[in-house]
TrEMBL record:
Pfam families in the cross-refs: COX4_pro (PF03626)
Membrane topology summary: Multi-pass membrane protein
GO cellular component assignments: plasma membrane
High-level lineage: Bacteria, Bacillati, Bacillota, Bacilli, Bacillales
Species name: Bacillus selenitireducens (strain ATCC 700615 / DSM 15326 / MLS10)
Keywords: Cell membrane, Membrane, Transmembrane, Transmembrane helix
Primary localization class, coarse: membrane
Subcellular location: Cell membrane
Residues that span the membrane, as ranges: 31-50, 56-78, 90-113
Name of protein: Cytochrome C oxidase subunit IV
Entry keyword Membrane: yes
Length: 115
């Protein structure tokens, strides 16, 4: 049996205790992660609206919070944390690495970052 269940598929008969525990655990994980993402989003809005962080650190701070949210969404809601999706993980992280290197190189070439 796979570790992820299709929530739209009807359960025939009475679900087993293991299935009930698995569904409860997955539901709890998604609800907790949802509220963590709401908290991260609120933290970003409040920190900028109240000038709680210095203006020079605002963009890196927002990008850090956005990165944390992307990882949460990928691993919790897109089920990338499952063992059977290892090749998908490799492809996605490779693509993100190539995109980050490309953006960094273009910023350096254009002159946004001067080192």
């Amino acid at each position: 049996m796979s570790s992820h269940l299709d929530p739209t598929a009807p359960i025939k008969g009475k679900p087993t205790k293991q299935l009930e525990r698995q569904l409860k655990r997955e539901t709890k994980t998604q609800i907790v992660s949802y509220f963590l993402m709401i908290a991260i989003t609120s933290m970003a809005f409040i920190s900028i609206a109240t000038d709680a962080i210095p203006s020079g650190f605002a963009i890196p701070f927002i990008l850090l919070l956005a990165g944390i949210q992307v990882i949460f969404q990928l691993y919790v809601f897109m089920h990338m944390g499952e063992k059977k999706t290892s090749w998908v993980n490799i492809m996605i992280w490779s693509g993100m690495l190539i995109a980050a290197l490309t953006v960094g190189a273009l910023m350096f070439l254009i002159g946004i970052v001067k080192y």
